[in-house]
């Protein structure tokens, strides 16, 4: 199987994950037991509550998140 840069692979079976990499490949591996509750993801936001996820999206659009010191850039929420 071939993957393009920036792809994410989620392996749900810890015993069936094998990788072959080309020289110069950068790989990040995260692991652990799955969360007991469902997670919802939108762009950079992750929550176990759909309501909280929607609130975070609205707060981002309204620019209610604190700015990073010395960085006045703003990246719009994808799709808005």
Verbal overview:
By secondary structure, the protein is of the alpha+beta class. It contains one helix and two strands; from the N terminus they run E-E-H. It has one helix at residues 50-61; strands spanning 40-42, 45-47. The protein has a two-stranded antiparallel sheet with strand order 1-2. A hairpin with a 2-residue loop joins strand 1 and strand 2 (45-47). The longest helix is centred in the C-terminal third of the chain and has 12 residues, at 50-61. The radius of gyration is 17 Å and the shape is extended. The relative contact order is 0.09.
Blueprint of the fold:
Blueprint: E1 40-42, E2 45-47, H1 50-61
Antiparallel strand pairs: 1-2
Biggest beta sheet summary: 2 strands, antiparallel
Q: Order of strands across the widest beta sheet?
A: 1-2
The helix count comes to 1
Coarse shape? extended
- Measured as a percent range, the helix fraction is 10-25%
- If you average the pLDDT, what whole number results? 87
Could you tell me the number of beta strands?
2
- Beta-strand content bin: 5-15%
């Amino acid at each position: 199987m071939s993957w393009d840069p920036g792809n994410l692979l989620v392996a749900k079976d810890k015993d069936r994950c094998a990788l072959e990499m080309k020289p110069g490949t950068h790989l990040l591996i995260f692991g652990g037991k799955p969360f007991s509750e469902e997670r919802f993801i939108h762009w950079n936001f992750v929550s176990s509550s759909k309501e909280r996820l929607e609130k975070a999206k609205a707060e981002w659009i309204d620019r209610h998140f604190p700015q990073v010191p010395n960085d006045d850039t703003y990246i719009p929420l994808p799709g808005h």
